[in-house]
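Message: Study each token:
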Amino acid sequence: MIEKKIEISMLYDFYSQLLTEKQRDMIDLYYNQDLSLGEIAQELQISRQAVYDTIKRTEKILYDYEDKLKLFKLFDSKMTNIEKLKDKVFRLEKQVESNSSKEKLKQEINDMKLLFDELFNN
């Protein structure tokens, strides 16, 4: 599981334009700039409790957007497939260098084609 701080930062990257300016500012200050609730409250001249409530409410909003739109899930899936493709390319290169059979090489290439199809059709 991704650490919450990283997860919220990633969701923020995907969905920040759907938030209000106030919500964007607080999430950015808290998660990306690592300011404490007290520091944010002082900077924005509001109570620490108001900062806390806004951050918690905004976290829920970000998770709701992801539940509905699934942009982060799609991104993560594509990155996983890209990593798999990279590994297959390196394996294929080694098989070519070691003069593997044509059948093994064809199978690796077919596997790569399937991964490419997944990448471009999802």
User: Anything to note?
Assistant: The radius of gyration is 22 Å. The chain has two domains: 4-69, 74-121. The chain has a mean pLDDT of 92. Helices lie at 4-15, 21-32, 37-44, 48-69, 71-97, 102-121.
